Amino acid sequence: MLLKSIAIAIAASVAGVLAAAPTASAAAPGVSIQGWGSGNCPQGMLCIWPNWNHPPQGPVETPSLTTNSEWTGSVQGFNFYNGTGRDAVISGFTFGSSIPFKSCAPAGGTGGDLYIPVNVTKVTWQLTPC
To answer: N or C: which terminal CB in the chain sees fewer CB atoms within 10 Å?
Structure first.
Protein backbone atom coordinates (compact mmCIF):
# COMPACT_ATOMS: atom_id res chain seq x y z
CA MET A 1 0.00 0.00 0.00
CA LEU A 2 2.85 2.36 0.84
CA LEU A 3 4.45 1.78 -2.58
CA LYS A 4 1.12 2.49 -4.29
CA SER A 5 0.79 5.80 -2.39
CA ILE A 6 4.34 6.80 -3.33
CA ALA A 7 3.72 5.96 -6.99
CA ILE A 8 0.55 8.09 -7.02
CA ALA A 9 2.37 11.00 -5.35
CA ILE A 10 5.21 10.84 -7.90
CA ALA A 11 2.75 10.71 -10.82
CA ALA A 12 0.86 13.72 -9.43
CA SER A 13 4.12 15.66 -9.00
CA VAL A 14 5.21 14.95 -12.57
CA ALA A 15 1.78 15.96 -13.91
CA GLY A 16 1.94 19.21 -11.93
CA VAL A 17 5.39 20.08 -13.28
CA LEU A 18 4.31 19.34 -16.86
CA ALA A 19 1.15 21.43 -16.49
CA ALA A 20 3.14 24.40 -15.16
CA ALA A 21 5.88 24.22 -17.82
CA PRO A 22 5.85 27.04 -20.38
CA THR A 23 4.82 26.11 -23.90
CA ALA A 24 7.27 26.33 -26.79
CA SER A 25 7.08 29.48 -28.88
CA ALA A 26 6.50 29.34 -32.64
CA ALA A 27 8.70 32.40 -33.10
CA ALA A 28 12.15 31.96 -34.49
CA PRO A 29 15.10 33.23 -32.43
CA GLY A 30 15.77 36.87 -33.21
CA VAL A 31 12.16 37.63 -34.07
CA SER A 32 9.58 39.30 -31.88
CA ILE A 33 6.05 38.18 -32.76
CA GLN A 34 3.45 40.78 -31.85
CA GLY A 35 -0.32 41.05 -31.91
CA TRP A 36 -0.72 44.04 -34.17
CA GLY A 37 -2.84 44.10 -37.33
CA SER A 38 -1.87 43.85 -40.97
CA GLY A 39 -1.83 47.62 -41.51
CA ASN A 40 -1.71 48.34 -45.22
CA CYS A 41 -0.40 44.88 -46.17
CA PRO A 42 -2.67 43.36 -48.84
CA GLN A 43 -4.49 40.16 -47.87
CA GLY A 44 -2.50 36.98 -48.55
CA MET A 45 0.87 38.75 -48.76
CA LEU A 46 4.11 38.99 -46.79
CA CYS A 47 5.00 42.64 -46.18
CA ILE A 48 8.22 44.11 -44.81
CA TRP A 49 8.50 47.72 -43.66
CA PRO A 50 11.77 49.61 -43.26
CA ASN A 51 11.08 51.28 -39.90
CA TRP A 52 10.09 50.35 -36.37
CA ASN A 53 6.41 51.23 -36.26
CA HIS A 54 3.61 49.02 -35.07
CA PRO A 55 0.43 50.74 -33.93
CA PRO A 56 -2.42 48.34 -33.01
CA GLN A 57 -3.82 48.36 -36.55
CA GLY A 58 -0.38 47.65 -38.05
CA PRO A 59 2.06 49.81 -40.02
CA VAL A 60 0.52 52.41 -42.32
CA GLU A 61 3.67 53.41 -44.23
CA THR A 62 4.36 51.96 -47.67
CA PRO A 63 6.01 48.53 -47.29
CA SER A 64 9.52 48.22 -48.70
CA LEU A 65 8.54 44.71 -49.89
CA THR A 66 5.23 43.00 -50.66
CA THR A 67 5.40 39.43 -51.96
CA ASN A 68 3.77 36.01 -51.86
CA SER A 69 6.45 34.24 -53.92
CA GLU A 70 10.20 33.64 -53.90
CA TRP A 71 11.99 37.01 -54.03
CA THR A 72 15.54 38.34 -54.33
CA GLY A 73 16.66 41.95 -54.35
CA SER A 74 17.64 44.51 -51.76
CA VAL A 75 15.32 46.42 -49.40
CA GLN A 76 15.61 47.74 -45.87
CA GLY A 77 13.49 45.87 -43.33
CA PHE A 78 12.54 46.06 -39.68
CA ASN A 79 8.84 45.10 -39.29
CA PHE A 80 7.00 42.32 -41.09
CA TYR A 81 3.50 40.92 -41.41
CA ASN A 82 2.97 37.46 -42.89
CA GLY A 83 -0.60 37.11 -44.14
CA THR A 84 0.18 34.01 -46.21
CA GLY A 85 -0.47 30.38 -45.38
CA ARG A 86 3.27 29.54 -45.47
CA ASP A 87 6.21 30.30 -43.21
CA ALA A 88 8.56 32.80 -44.84
CA VAL A 89 12.33 32.77 -44.40
CA ILE A 90 13.71 36.32 -44.53
CA SER A 91 17.44 36.50 -45.32
CA GLY A 92 19.96 39.29 -45.74
CA PHE A 93 22.49 41.28 -43.75
CA THR A 94 22.33 43.49 -40.70
CA PHE A 95 21.98 47.03 -41.97
CA GLY A 96 25.30 48.66 -42.86
CA SER A 97 27.37 45.49 -42.40
CA SER A 98 28.23 42.16 -43.96
CA ILE A 99 26.92 40.14 -40.99
CA PRO A 100 24.39 37.62 -42.36
CA PHE A 101 20.82 37.59 -41.06
CA LYS A 102 18.18 34.86 -41.44
CA SER A 103 14.86 34.55 -39.67
CA CYS A 104 11.48 32.90 -40.05
CA ALA A 105 8.16 34.79 -40.23
CA PRO A 106 5.38 32.42 -39.16
CA ALA A 107 2.34 31.98 -41.41
CA GLY A 108 -1.21 32.94 -40.70
CA GLY A 109 -1.44 36.64 -40.02
CA THR A 110 1.43 37.27 -37.65
CA GLY A 111 3.35 40.50 -37.36
CA GLY A 112 6.73 41.00 -35.83
CA ASP A 113 9.94 42.92 -35.82
CA LEU A 114 13.44 41.77 -36.63
CA TYR A 115 14.94 43.58 -33.58
CA ILE A 116 17.47 45.45 -35.71
CA PRO A 117 17.32 47.09 -39.15
CA VAL A 118 18.35 44.63 -41.86
CA ASN A 119 19.04 44.69 -45.57
CA VAL A 120 16.67 41.99 -46.85
CA THR A 121 18.07 40.26 -49.93
CA LYS A 122 15.95 37.11 -50.16
CA VAL A 123 12.58 35.65 -49.19
CA THR A 124 11.97 31.91 -49.47
CA TRP A 125 9.20 29.65 -48.19
CA GLN A 126 9.32 26.53 -46.07
CA LEU A 127 6.81 23.78 -45.41
CA THR A 128 7.97 23.04 -41.88
CA PRO A 129 6.83 25.36 -39.08
CA CYS A 130 9.10 28.14 -37.90
So the answer is: N
DSSP SS3 for 102: strand
* CB-facing half-sphere around the CA of 121: CA atoms within 13 A: 10
Q: How far apart are CA 56 and CA 93, in angstroms?
A: 28
Tens of pLDDT, residues 43-78? 999 999 998 766 777 778 899 999 999 999 999 999
**Rounded CA separation 33/104 (Å):** 11
Query: Can you tell me the distance from the alpha carbon of 98 to that of 81, in angstroms, rounded to the nearest whole number?
Result: 25
Closest-CA residue to 66 (of 37, 93, 92, 39): 39
Report CA 41 to chain centroid distance, whole Å.
16
